[in-house]
Amino acid sequence: MCRWLAYTGNAVPLETVLFRARHSLIDQSLHSTKGATTTNGDGFGLGWYQHPHDIPYRYRSVHPAWNDRNLRELARAVTAPMFLAHVRAATHTPVQETNCHPFRHRRWMFAHNGLIQGFPLMRRELLVAIDPGRFNALEGSTDSEAMFYLAMTFGLEADPVKGLERMAGFVEAVAQKHGIEPALNMTVCASDGEQLVAVRYSTERNSRSLYHSTSFRHLHELYPDDPRIAAVGDDAYLIVSEPIVDLPEAWAEVPESTAIVVRGAEIDYRPFVPVMP
């Protein structure tokens, strides 16, 4: 499938997380240990905010992340307090730039690992449900982008968790009509520059891997001389498909059917329960 990460905290050079960490996201694009596929070489995407109220910047490429020299230069040059990054392993759809995550609509970005089972059979019905005012913003052909615009249609901007719950409930209802089971497997992240919203959920309760960082304040005490921790600050928070550094105390697995909302130092964990919109 895919691997992704989301970061919020002190502004850091993007290469700190993308390249310098042991088992970084770039390393995972070749050597994933917890994904459905070991190699995730069907494109890369990166989105970042310089200021909370700005439209995010974005870089996407169909090159494998490990072989993208422009990405390495960009990650060395850019410093940001919040960003999303994604390495892709394509399923139903072609390798093209418009199918690379994160997807963006105004201030919002969205990244996904997983799939809608039977998406080609359901695609028309799912796309027709997207708000007509947003439909022309669709650029690619992935189930992930369809999920993003369905969530936008069902209220992501007003209440991100509820918007995602309605999206998941709608997908499952359409799948049931088509006799498709299980319908949905997803770890997703959405952000508007002020918050990170991440979800781990699947219809069969057997979701793709997802982890979050534990207290960086505690890690500073345990590892005061570790430069990988020193730069990010006490209130930094990372959500990752799989751990990116070799510190067992640094990571905890996100439980099944759980949503996480991160606003600065405030972190809220909620049950994730799909509902039909």
From TrEMBL:
SUPFAM superfamilies linked: N-terminal nucleophile aminohydrolases (Ntn hydrolases) (SSF56235)
Residue ranges of domain Glutamine amidotransferase type-2 in the record: 2-277
InterPro entries attached to this UniProt entry: EgtC-like, Gamma-glu_amide_hydrolase, GATase_2_dom, Ntn_hydrolases_N
Chain segments annotated as coiled-coil in the UniProt record: none
Keyword Phosphoprotein attached: no
A Gene Ontology molecular function term of the record: transferase activity
Keywords: Glutamine amidotransferase, Transferase
Superkingdom as given in the UniProt entry: Bacteria
UniProt cross-references to PROSITE patterns, sorted A to Z: GATASE_TYPE_2
PANTHER family recorded: GLUTAMINE AMIDOTRANSFERASE DUG3-RELATED (PTHR43187)
Name assigned to this protein: Class II glutamine amidotransferase
Organism in which the protein naturally occurs: Paraburkholderia acidisoli
